[in-house]
Amino acid sequence: MLNFLSTALVPLLASLIVLAGLRRRLDLFACFAEGARQGMGSILSLVPTLVALMVGVEMLSASGLLELLGRALAPAARLLGLPEALMPLVILRPISGNGSLSVLGDLIAKNGADSLVATAGAVILTSTETTLYTAGVYFGSVGARDTGPTIPAALLSDLIAVLVGGGLVKLMLFS
Amino acid sequence: MLNKIWAGMILISTLAGLALGRGAELSGAVFTGCSRALSLAVTLLGVAAFWSGLMHIAEQSGLLAAFAGLLRPLIRLLFPGLGRGGGAEQAIAASMTANIFGLSGAATPLGLRAMAELAKGQPRGMASPHMQMLVLINSASLQIVPATVVALRQEAGSAAPFAIMPAVWLTSAATLVAGVLLLRLLTALARPRRQRASEKGGLRRC
Asked: Which residues constitute the domain of residue B50?
């Protein structure tokens, strides 16, 4: 059931949306184009950030530092039952969305999209958010300085996402 | 934050790379990074265009508003005591809907509007429990179709780019539940401490 949903969901969702638009007699094509233009604009405005971060990530991995970091965190990775190569992604994830996307792109390029590392990385990346950035922007917008236990709770639940996501990938896709 | 991290990435890798004798690789990395960034953007461009186009139809046809209505019971569970049908409830529903459908461009402004609604009539400087809950929910990514990462997998020749989705759904649901419970637990633990501090005559709010 879950597998059927995951393979057929995108066309089904697209059809549902098109049907809803037809029922309301929307100018579907113009409406789509307007939204698509906005979506492309947001990716294009992302390009400078991606260049900056991707160069940073490539330099880190060329310098050999990322390996060293991975090796330093290897005991933690083993304790959690995760591949060592995932650790840079886990650390960067709460801080920078584009940065962790760059690291995932790197993992996919080096190990293949269907490798355990890249698949677990994909699941962990998509089931978490840039926690620190989100909290900063949201609390900052209302001038809240006393934020209670929100940030520790959110970071702990990110760690739970790493454990659950890594475990589920092994269980559902690699067993 | 990102400022320091980025500067650190460049400076530390230059230092470490030169110390480890990897100057040539380091120079090459600058150019690989640039071209990888562009190919990443190109991969994402088509998907982002298609997805935001569809979502614009969903929004204009009222489908998103109907979905936001379905979220109401969940919102009442997570935000006890919130005014029913009020501006805050609607703003929270809209922001959650944008997150669930992966409208990354719309999600942040809608979320900030929800924060502003929640801040009405609250003392400034302190995040109310409802604000804390909203930030927690929005920092646990609930998403039906993780379009960006699926596109990345497809482009890299994955045999089944969508295969990650069930694992993603289960993981983010588990993360959200864990986050909500942790927030409640930590709040309950912090309460006595905060009371003691205020009895001692803690900082005066201005």
From this structure: 1-61
Question: How many independent structural domains does chain B possess?
Answer: 1
The ipTM value here is 0.84
Q: Are residues A136 and A101 in contact, defined by beta-carbon separation less than 8 angstroms?
A: no
Tell me what pLDDT residue B122 has: 85
* Structure confidence at residue A76 as a pLDDT band (50, 70, 90): confident
In order, the DSSP letters of chain A are -HHHHHHHHHHHHHHHHHHHHHHTT--HHHHHHHHHHHHHHHHHTTHHHHHHHHHHHHHHHHTTHHHHHHHHTHHHHHHHT--GGGHHHHHHTTT-HHHHHHHHHHHHHHH-TTSHHHHHHHHHHHTS--HHHHHHHHHHHTT--B-TTHHHHHHHHHHHHHHHHHHHHHHHH--
Between A17, A101, A128, which is nearest B54 by CB? A17
Query: Rounded to 10 degrees, what is the CA torsion of A54, A60, A62, A63?
Result: 160
Domain assignment present for B84: no
Closest residue of chain B to A106, computed from CA coordinates = B36
pLDDT > 90 in chain A, percent: 41
In tens, the pLDDT along B60-79 reads 998 888 888 899 999 999 99
User: In percent, how much of chain A has pLDDT > 70?
Assistant: 99
- Restricting to A residues 32-71, those with a Cβ less than 8 Å away from any Cβ of B are 32-40, 42-44, 46-47, 50-65, 68
Scanning B69-98 for CB atoms below 8 A from A yields: none
Q: Which residue of A has its CA nearest to B154?
A: A113
pLDDT given at position B51:
84
- Residue A32 pLDDT exceeds 80: yes
Chain A positions in Cβ-Cβ contact with residue B125 (cut-off 8 Å): 143-146
A8 to chain B, any CB pair closer than 8 A? The answer is: no
A105 and chain B in contact, CB less than 8 A: yes
Residues lower than pLDDT 50 in chain B = none
B89, part of any domain: no
